[in-house]
Design goal:
276 residues
Length: 276
């Protein structure tokens, strides 16, 4: 009875919750290739998602009755905004050119993170520095190649250049995952914390680029990328700090940390479902 009473007393909040669930489920189904048929030039799933998003927008803008509090209206608007923004960075792109620009926009942060890795060895205990250095020795070359290929794809967005970009981003991701596993063997707690934080910063950016590349690749191409990924996300996930990854994404896109945390979680889910 309390459930029915709450729905009756808070119809806007209940409707928003239902619409958020619909949009979220529709987005996940779309990512899995479920269409439920066509609707015009799109699919039924995309139409449902668009309608749900539009209704959320209307609910967020509706000031409600006189009995509605400012706090509840603001909270409703915030949740609606989160749902509206969920499909944005890290999971999907509008076009190859847009995604290419987004990838290039990540490259300065990638170079900065790799530079931090290069200087981190000096912060570690003497017995731990060689382990860290050996684990991350390939980062500079991998970063330079990925940056060059991202710029090349932006200048010439062809299938051949994109294929090279796919290979390199997976290669770099595997190098990062291997480095995380090596850093986990560092015994000194302070050294291990410094090492993992520096490597994760690089890994977060590489994962963001991988998600962007996957968004403009076919299912078969993504499956091929996943097949080249021998060290899976599940193996390194316990070593990662979700808050640190969200902070990097939030800082890059200039968005709230909570939204970035949701986007990172969705990107990780998409990676796992794809076989990474």
């Amino acid at each position: 009875m309390n459930l029915i009473s709450n729905i009756w007393n808070q119809p806007k909040t209940s409707a928003a919750g239902l619409l958020i669930a619909v949009v979220t489920i529709a987005t996940v189904l779309s990512q899995q290739g479920v269409t439920l048929g066509t609707a015009g030039t799109g699919t039924v799933i995309s139409l449902v998602c668009a309608i749900g998003t539009a209704l959320l927008g209307l609910l967020a803008k509706d000031p409600g009755g006189k009995s509605s509090s400012a706090g509840s209206t603001a909270k409703l608007g915030a949740w609606a905004l989160i749902a509206l923004l969920l499909p944005l960075p890290l999971v999907s792109g509008c076009s190859g050119v847009t995604v290419a620009q987004d990838i290039v926009n990540w490259t300065p942060a990638l170079q900065g993170a790799v530079a931090t890795v290069d200087s981190t060895a000096a912060l570690l205990a003497p017995q731990d520095a060689p382990i860290f250095t050996a684990a991350t020795v390939s980062f500079d070359a991998a970063s330079n190649l990925l940056v060059a290929q991202a710029s090349a794809y932006l200048a010439n967005p062809t299938a051949g250049v994109l294929s090279e970009l796919r290979i390199q981003v997976v290669t770099f991701q595997q190098q990062v995952n291997a480095a995380l596993l090596q850093a986990a063997k560092i015994v000194d707690p302070a050294s291990q914390q410094h090492a993992l934080a520096a490597i994760q910063a690089v890994g977060t950016i590489v994962s963001a680029i991988l998600a962007l590349v996957a968004s403009i690749s076919s299912k078969a191409q993504v499956a091929q990328m996943a097949a080249q990924s021998t060290i899976k996300l599940a193996a390194v996930r316990p070593l990662l700090d979700g808050s640190r990854a969200a902070a990097i994404v939030a800082g890059h896109y200039g968005e709230p940390a909570e939204l970035a945390r949701i986007q990172v979680a969705r990107a990780e889910y998409a990676e796992v479902q794809a076989g990474f």
